[in-house]
Design a protein that fits this description.
single chain; alpha/beta; Rossmann fold; about 40% helix; elongated
Length: about 325
Amino acid sequence: MATINEVAKVAGVSKATVSRVLNNRPVSTETHAKVMKAIRELNYQPNAQARGLSLRQAKIIGLIAPDLLGDFYGPVIMGIEEVLQKNDYNLIVSRARSKEFRLAKMLKEKKVDGLIIATPRRIGEKGILALKRDNFPVVVIDGNVGEQVCSVEVDSYQGAFQATEHLIKLGHSRIGVISSPYAFKESRDRLRGYQEALKQYGLLYDHQLVREGDYTMASGEQEINQLLQLEPRPTAVFAFNDSMAIGAIHGLFKKGLSVPKDMAVVGFDDSYVAKTIYPPLTTVQQPIQEMGAVAARKLLALLSGEETAITHITLQTSLVVRASCGAGLYK
């Protein structure tokens, strides 16, 4: 049976450094990877006290998300759970209500081996980077907090470009936008995609056509009412998520307007409701469940020492054309 001294020799580090890794104490990412590789090669089995720490025998991953159901986070969780179950890991989910919530307690009591954070804006960049300084494995979904933390997101810029281009090709030149809050990176990326499509097709950007929502149906309805007051009013609207797009459709119906005859509507997500609402919603499809699966696989690779590189993975979107844009396709 291999000893801790043999692990230290193979890894090229001191016995004390191996002990630090086994006790989940801060070491450099490179050193951590060397020790973990030596442990695997030698099939080293730590004593009962050390087992379940660095070797991750606790087999528990933490997920922090603002919503445990919903059109976005529900599929994310499904993707994570599918990967973890195949690798005999369990999942603890914490709903983020503040920057503190249960994070400190979860880490202090060593309840989890690593974290997937699906709401980086709630924790803040400082909080996430603090975890990295302690060599705690973290993967962020739907947000990029810097070069030091692994992340998985979709190409919001390209998705918004596709949606806007589609409306332009249908003959629309005055296209309203109901954005998500500008503080979020995905919102800024989607706005850039919208602006670039206008530019490439020789259309001028009009800031009056851009309204800021808050992801909810209520804000979609509120902002479409503001867009309807413009002269001339837009003939199409692109909402940065499906909930706001559906809210916009409700608002148009209340005004006695028809979708898509009086105004075309496009969303972003391809949620379940997008398929069932009337008229069916044209929307940008995000590979939401795949985002969760990719994040889980990356975290497990970090835990095992198989990967040490910080990666930023961007998944591609696709436009799903249905009847709300006036293309006449019911899918």
